[in-house]
Amino acid sequence: MLIAIAIMALGAVILGAMLGWASIRFKVEGDPLVEKIDSVLPQTQCGQCGYPGCRPYAEAIAKGEEINLCPPGGAEGVQKLADLLGREVKALDAEEKPKQVALIDENTCIGCTLCIQACPVDAIVGAAKQLHTVVAKLCTGCELCVPPCPVECIRMEAIPETIDNWKWKHPVIAIQPVPARKVA
Amino acid sequence: MFQLFKFNGGVKPPGNKAQSVGQPSATAPLPARLVVPLHQNIGGTPRPVVKAGDRVLKGQLIGEADGWISAAVHAPTSGMVRDIGAYVQPHPSGLSAVSVVIEPDGREEWIERQPVDYRNLPTDAVQTAIRQAGIVGLGGAAFPTHGKTTPAKGVPMEELIINGGECEPYITCDDILMREQGEGIVRGTAIIRDLMQPKKVLIGIEDNKPEAIAAMRAAVAACGENFDVVAVPALYPAGSAKQLTRMLTGKEVPVGKRSTDIGTQCFNVGTVYAVWRALALGEPLIDRMITVTGNVEHPRNWRAPIGMPIADLLALGGPKADTDGVILGGPMMGFVAPDLTVSTVKATNCLIARSRTLFPPAPPEMPCIRCGECARACPQDLQPFEMYWFSRARNFGKTQEYHIFDCIECGCCSFVCPSRIPLVQYFRFAKSEIWAREGDKKAANSAKERFEYKKAREEREKAEKAEKLAKAAAAQAAKKAAEAAATGDSLPVTTPTADDAEAAKKAAIAAAMERAKAQRAAVQPRNTDALNADQQHAIDAVEARRLQAGLETPAADNENPSS
């Protein structure tokens, strides 16, 4: 009887030590779910969801926040999040906008650097009292630079369709009129 | 006897080639204006180097190659540059892109043509010369040719393949070029051979072009080269680089690799001919052979300048009355020109006038019955019906699992489909969606990286600032303490806090604003300053009248500095 208890206790100690070692050795840094959600979000860092950036929103979603708050992600983004999390698809809680890029009117810009500070992805170049400009390739179209501008010289422009970004359309089946059958 | 291999699948559409090879090729007359698009190659868009109003000579550079994978663009004739602007492109989208409009002066004045001594130049100098001459793959892909002439590292070049397959119905531009310019093709092949040092050179031609095969054999013998001219069975798409390579060598390019990784490379006959003209004669790529056929009175091959409006080229063939459009390229892989004002580009090999009798409208799509005909016809050994389901359902991950990017869009599957499903259109749709998504993903990742970097930088700056402030405060305190010690004063030393710093900043801003206000007030002259006698008189009169009418109190009048 005593031996049996001792064997069980020894086994428990050994297995417990192994578990303890494994939890240190194979420790997962951060929450993998947040990473996964973050990789689905469009990374515009626009804050339109009410969170300061995409990652905070991903963290909030992991804690149970709604998945339909991201306008740049669009309906497709909601779909992807729903697939990832096994939640129900919901209509987007905002209007879906075409992709945009910020444009600084060079005649009006006074070189105040406020937009540079507002840009979350460092896509605006310029210095104090120097003309600023947007690096269009890096601009995510988040609109965060628009409100701080004291002279309202920044406007958002929809990215036009060019041959380089043109996409083949989903084939549509043309509906053809069927000649009416004569009723005998 | 040369051993040939086979590829699976393939179809045999009616050739319709005999019509346009009845006559030798001719040079197309210059049109009233040429619209030369700048972006005619895969890769970077060339930068325009001329402006409206410039006079250009034939062969003069008008678009400079941008980046290594890019090819220069040249003026096809001498004349005046009338405009540089957006014009509708010969592209299925029908969208516009930057083009140079040249009004020919009819004098055809060449620039000074300088042949390149390619035999005594290092490889990269010859490649640069090919790039400067604006040569791209003329079989239709328009990939810059110089970019294909570097063998893979560590893989010996086994076979250089020259593609005279031309398997698509109606098109005969390569056929006629081989019949008429065999020697130029062989000499161009020799240039590429010298660049790539392959063990063998194979010229593959479909056996439905016996005249071209005979002409090429004669040309090879005349030039004293040891190239193999091989007749391959006519089976669409034998003229596709991958299928031709497989037929001639039995090798298949693995997924995600290039043909040089298995020691082969393939060039179109038109491309090597253009290489020879560029290096031996100093003539950049400014014209090409184009087949004008289909619903026209006189189908023929024309040597046409790049940038010729297709309406002018079509007129040379004499379109019949019921022509209702133009197909650019062949009937299997081509597309309908968005309108007749678009011009020919380096990749344009054929214009087919369309009519309802020649090309009846596509019958309505029926449901897929899973017969598997498309998989049997696919020369790339894919399963088009599976890719079709997933493309249609927008399940793009699955389409990639079925290797949609190995699809060469040859159209065999659509050709054999008993339900007439436009399969290739579904695959093109899926491919462009996948590309767009990958682009978005890349942009999102870079945005994330930049955002995180900015956050880290802001944190660091904050920390640095706090440290600096703390240091300054400590220095100040030390100074005060020293002073106190020197004077023997025992006042308590106050360390400046962040609040103090904030308050000082606010005060400084307020003072600056005050100063600015004062400055403005001092600088701006008031319109009531420095009045002359007449004006003063008028003002006094007005004021008097106002006073009489009781509109203003005399007290307000007193504020007038001039009174």
User: Given this structure, which CATH class of the domain at 98-160 in chain A is correct?
Assistant: Alpha Beta
Question: Helix count of chain A, per DSSP?
Answer: 5
Quaternary organization: heterodimer
Radius of gyration of chain A: 27 Å
Class by SSE composition of chain B: alpha/beta
Uncertain spans of chain A = none
Terminal CA distance of chain B reads 117 Å
Distance between the termini of chain A: 99 Å
Question: Could you tell me the mean pLDDT of chain A?
Answer: 88
Largest interface: A-B, 27 and 31 residues
Structural class by SSE content of chain A? mainly alpha
Count of folded domains of chain B: 4
CATH class category label of the largest domain in chain B:
Alpha Beta
Task: Supply Rg of chain B.
Answer: 37 Å
Under CATH, the topology of the largest domain in chain B can be stated as Rossmann fold
Q: Tell me about the biggest sheet of chain A?
A: 2 strands, antiparallel
Overview of this protein structure:
The complex is a heterodimer of chains A (184) and B (563). In chain A, helix 2 (32-40) packs across helix 3 (54-62). Chain A has a two-stranded antiparallel ribbon. Among the domains of chain A are: 32-85, Electron transport complex subunit B, putative Fe-S cluster (3-methyladenine DNA Glycosylase II, Chain A, domain 3), CATH 1.10.15.40; 98-160, Alpha-Beta Plaits (2-Layer Sandwich), CATH 3.30.70. In chain A, strand 2 and strand 3 (133-134) form a beta hairpin. Chain A has helices at residues 2-25, 32-40, 54-62, 74-85, 114-118, and strands at residues 100-104, 124-125, 133-134, 154-158. The mean pLDDT of chain A is 88. With 184 residues, chain A is mostly helical. With 563 residues, chain B is an alpha/beta fold. Chain B folds into 4 domains: 18-354, Rossmann fold (3-Layer(aba) Sandwich), CATH 3.40.50; 362-453, no CATH class; 496-525; 532-563. Chain B is 38% helix and 15% strand. Chain B contains 15 helices and 17 strands. Chain B has a 6-stranded mixed sheet, with helices on both faces. The relative contact order of chain B is 0.10. Chains A and B meet through loops of A and helix 12 of B.
